[in-house]
Amino acid sequence: MAQVTPNDIDAARERIAGKIERTPTVISQSLSDRLGVPVHLKLEHRQITGSFKLRGASNAVASLNTEQKARGVVAASTGNHGRALAHAAKLEGMRAVICMSRLVPGNKLDEIRRLGAEILIVGNSQDDAQQEVERLVAQEGLVMLPPFDHPAIIAGQGTLGLEMLEQVPDAALVLVPLSGGGLATGIAAAVKGVSPRTKVIGVSMARGAAMKASLDAGRPILVEELPTLADSLGGGIGLDNQLTFAMCRDLLDDVILLGEDEIAAGIRHAYAQEREIVEGAGAVGIAALLAGKVNAKGPVVVLLSGRNIDMGLHRTIVCGEALATSERAA
Ligand SMILES: *Cc1c(COP(=O)(O)O)cnc(C)c1O
Hints:
CATH class of the largest domain: Alpha Beta
Radius of gyration: 19 Å
Number of domains: 2
Helix content: 40-55%
Bound molecules: pyridoxal-5'-phosphate
Strand order of the largest sheet: 1-2-10-7-8-9
Number of helices: 14
Pfam family, one: PALP
Distance between the termini: 60 Å
Order of helices and strands: HEHEHHEHEHEHEHEHEHHEHHEH
Protein name: Threonine dehydratase
Number of strands: 10
Low-confidence stretches: 326-330
CATH topology of the largest domain: Rossmann fold
GO molecular function: L-serine ammonia-lyase activity; pyridoxal phosphate binding; threonine deaminase activity
Structural class: alpha/beta
Strand content: 5-15%
Keywords: Lyase, Pyridoxal phosphate
Family: Belongs to the serine/threonine dehydratase family.
């Protein structure tokens, strides 16, 4: 089976240079103290559009030929891919149609609409949204750019792996949020191409972890999609998954699952200790460290993948600890 290679990721990096930010990596003193090894945070939630998804979307759009660009692009998205694709398509002056399920929060819709993309809301799951995408490809000739299972998307996300190793050359372990696996497989391919002994571990929410369930089953399987604080990690991996299932199986060293309270603690820590606003999906790496679910023997790089959280929800989560603390003190 064809897999994405380090050469593909180098090519992606050249293609998207100037279209994305090279985000900083900073040391976390509090997490380093807690773990007893240096813990670095890759601040990719500060990427343009608020998530790393702009890397894959920019690479995929830039890889299209003139005739495909004239037809426009379509995708199913839990929000951040749609937002990134809308931004990337707008830069190219292209039409973009984004299909998504009813579970996607409203703040994500508004932003995509603002970027000039057309939005279609269909069904209660990513799989329903995906069927609408296939209809538009067949009936209107749009080019499908899926959120994760596509070589140009994976290669674009992989550029993060190159940056992380340049910023922390002695990284022993990289923690990556995991849903469909475009992010984790791109990073793993890049990281292991440069530093084969560096471990790459995926982190998902326990509620509806489709890739973990599929890896355990030995084949892509369907998992019920449930509401979670890590809403950007929701959705299936596709029963006809082409690339990311096999790449996760071959390249990831482990997958960690987290409860909702643990994810909330990650968001709170990011805010109170690191002064960073991250969404649930972006906080799972920190959450895994706080939950004591990671055994690190050397420098750790934690990817903060996105910041597109409803600010009312963020306030509730952050104030939750203030309440709990004052209750304890009382
Ligand atoms: C999409 C997304 C992920 C997961 O990426 P996959 O390639 O689907 O595994 C993680 N964090 C954020 C913020 C995302 O938007």
